[in-house]
Design a protein that fits this description.
This protein is mainly α. The chain has one domain (15-160): Four Helix Bundle (Hemerythrin (Met), subunit A) (Up-down Bundle), CATH 1.20.120. Helix content is 72%, strand content 0%. The chain has helices at residues 15-43, 50-76, 81-88, 93-120, 127-160. Helix 1 (15-43) packs antiparallel against helix 2, helix 1 runs antiparallel to helix 5 and helix 2 (50-76) runs antiparallel to helix 4. It starts with 14 loop residues before the first helix and ends in a 14-residue tail after the last helix.
Length: 174
């Protein structure tokens, strides 16, 4: 986030930066929605309906896989918010790299679980084990989003000498 001289009270972000921030939050919101849907699917009864439970968990996990893939792909784009931070604030590059690596790890974990659930279609499903594994994935995604939010707020503060406004998600581009 490169800083520019702004008038007092004006949004210090350029229109392009505001667009990147809005896109990032949109990606994060889609992932959060998929995470909530997965949590709901995991919480449904599985006893004597393991196949239906597994099928629903697989369906929602596929939605989550797509949301995480899109979020990671967008974060890797040259015009993304993370790329802007990487380019303009070199002291934060290691953290940007770390976030990108974690995106790849999360995608790998989700893909492995989808494969495992597909294999389970031919055998018994260990519901407790699947719930535990997916709880770890969900915890990892929450941690990822928290770290990314911390990085964005730190980059904003370093660039503009103030906190990102609490209502920035509702702020409109000017």
């Amino acid at each position: 986030m490169s800083s520019e001289v702004q008038q007092p009270g004006a949004d210090p972000l350029t229109q392009a930066q505001r667009h990147r921030l809005d896109q990032h939050w949109g990606d994060q919101d889609r992932t959060l929605l998929a995470m909530r849907q997965l949590e709901a699917a995991l919480a449904t009864a599985a006893l004597r309906r393991e196949r239906a439970w597994r099928d629903e968990v697989c369906r929602v996990l596929g939605v989550l896989a797509e949301a995480v893939r899109d979020e990671a792909t967008n974060a890797d784009q040259p015009d993304s918010l993370l790329s802007d931070i990487f380019r303009t604030q070199p002291w934060l590059r290691t953290r940007v790299r770390g976030l990108r690596i974690r995106y790849a790890q999360m995608q790998d974990s989700i893909a492995a679980l989808l494969d495992e659930l597909a294999t389970a279609a031919r055998s018994a499903v260990d519901v407790a084990y699947i719930r535990q594994r997916l709880a770890w994935v969900l915890a990892g995604l929450r941690d990822q989003q928290g770290r990314e939010s911390d990085l964005i707020y730190e980059a904003y503060y370093d660039a503009f000498g103030s906190d990102l406004p609490r209502d920035a998600r509702q702020a409109k581009s000017t």
